[in-house]
Amino acid sequence: MQQYIARRILQSLPIIAVVAVITFALVHVAPGDAAYMLFSPNVSVEQIEELRRSLGLDRPMVVQFVDWAVRFIRGDLGTGLLSKQPVLDLMKPRLEATVSITFWGMVFSIVMGIPLGMVAAWKAHGLIDRAVMLAAVFGLSVPSFWLAYIFVWAFALQLPWFPAIGYTPISDGLWPWFRSLAMPCFVISLHTGAVYARMTRSTMIEVLNEDYVRTARAKGLAEFNVFVRHAFKNASIPIITLLGFLFIGLITGTIFVEIVFAIPGLGRLLVDAVKAHDIPIVQALLMLTALVYVYVNLIVDIIYAYVDPRIRY
Fold first, then answer.
1. Which end is more exposed in the chain, N or C (fewer Cβ atoms within 10 Å of the end residue's Cβ)?
2. Cα–Cα dist 151/136, whole Å
3. Residues 303, 13: Cα–Cα separation, whole Å
4. How many angstroms separate the CA atoms of 3 and 9, rounded?
5. CA dist 163 to 95, 124, 262, 268, Å?
6. How far apart are CA 245 and CA 11, in angstroms?
């Protein structure tokens, strides 16, 4: 197992290098110039060129990339061009909100999707199955931005159960913290929960038709044990695969949620940085998102090896 994990970690390093090159290139080929953003339209060309030299934007692209990569490896994410503050200091107060939304979004997705998919497979082709699949189609089809505004109107304005906008830190109390997260997390988890339900149902139905499941039933095992211990365990590999992709989807979905619900998280910081062409912030956030994506998939591969001992080198 240790060799398997070590091999997967080593395999991730070239991927990270390629991602770093793509991230750096995308930011620098995007239209706009950070130096022009920092000055009013009336400044002279000489002033702008002087600023570009001070920012290092006049150096060859390869030199800029190597300098950025070395600083990133050392933990220096750069300094915001507009705020003049270290990017890490700008991220720290916003990290809690984004992590909280992602965590509870994943919890809501799993709690909604997997049990509903299992029930639909258990009652396959029946009324319960059709009702669950209809709800899943609704979750996949409804635009998230429309659903977010409906939730704000219904549960914040008409029924004042939850705050319409904003984020309450966990230091202010668990219940206020959870109330501020309930609607945003449910909105982003509805789509992923629907995907989980459909995937769980299809894999469970396939496994329930296998010979070893029929053998377990013929031996007189309780239906619950057959369904959970035998069928679900063997159907979990595709579900674990989906876990990694949907986790990344939730991270990117927080950008939309933070804008709609006015939550001061990393998503809003990224959008504001893109608008201002604040290169250090954009590069740092894109690279960190890519690292999370790579290592979440690494964790998924490691879970594979524990769930299915046949998966090795």
1. C
2. 18
3. 19
4. 10
5. 20, 39, 11, 19
6. 19
Q: Which two tokens stand for residue 110?
A: 């799993």
HSE-CB at 230 with a 13 A cutoff on CA atoms is 21
The letter for the amino acid at 253 is G
Tokens linked to 127: 């009324």
Minimal CA–CA distance to 244: which of 293, 310, 309? Answer: 293
Instruction: Report which DSSP code applies to 228.
Output: I
Q: Half-sphere exposure of 76 toward its Cβ, with a 13 Å CA cutoff?
A: 8
Helices (H), 142-173: 144-152
Mean pLDDT by 10 residues, the chain (313 residues): 73 81 73 55 60 66 80 81 81 87 87 86 84 86 82 84 85 87 86 85 82 77 74 76 74 80 85 79 83 79 69 55
Residue count of the chain: 313
Residue spans in the chain of domains classed CATH 1.10.3720.10: 94-307
Q: Token digits for 203? A: 């894999």
φ/ψ (deg, to 5) at 79: -125, 135
DSSP H helical ranges for the chain: 2-29, 34-37, 45-55, 61-73, 87-122, 127-141, 144-152, 174-208, 211-218, 223-225, 233-260, 266-276, 279-307
3-class DSSP state of 277:
coil
Superfamily of domain 94-307: MetI-like (1.10.3720.10)
Which residues, including other chains, have CB under 8 Å from residue 308's CB and lie 6 or more apart?
237
